[in-house]
Amino acid sequence: MLDAIKNQFATDDILIKRADLYKVNVTRQRVFELITFIGNNYNYKTLNAITCTDWIEEGHFALTYIISTLDRKNTIMVQTMINREEAHIDTLSKEFIQAEIFERDLAEMYGINFIGNDNLKELSLENWVHTPPLRREFDTLKFVNNNLTFREGREDNLDVKVEMKRIRAEKKAAKEAAKKLEEEIKDGK
User: Are strands 44-55 and 60-69 parallel, antiparallel or unpaired?
Assistant: First the structure.
């Protein structure tokens, strides 16, 4: 299969992660052709997920289509890059019904338009008008400080970092005390 992909899709960007898991990078113009090819010829029929990684420094998103064989024994990740500023690609929902919800999520969280998916309405961010929250330029702390208020009765919230340090210090001290006690018992004191 991998040789056929290399030859037909002119890509050497194939990674064998395990004997049952492969990753192939292909141009966006050929991504759906490759997905159809592996489905028709190698029984890759189950779309498990569509994921996105924001490569803000390079100016693109990496979209990864994770597809398994019907028996779930083999999985292939088909990855392509799309421009961040003109974030759109055709829908895969006509071939895989489950793509609709994955695309809807990515549209909401990254601002990607899946052309042909007529159900890209909001999924969980009701009336969201800000930068999509999983884009790397989205400043979570600034958003929280500018748009949210803390509920009454939460004034005694503890700083998480300070609390984690305190808990680690307590655990370390308890281990050292237990070790010291064990040594004293060993020495017969």
Answer: antiparallel
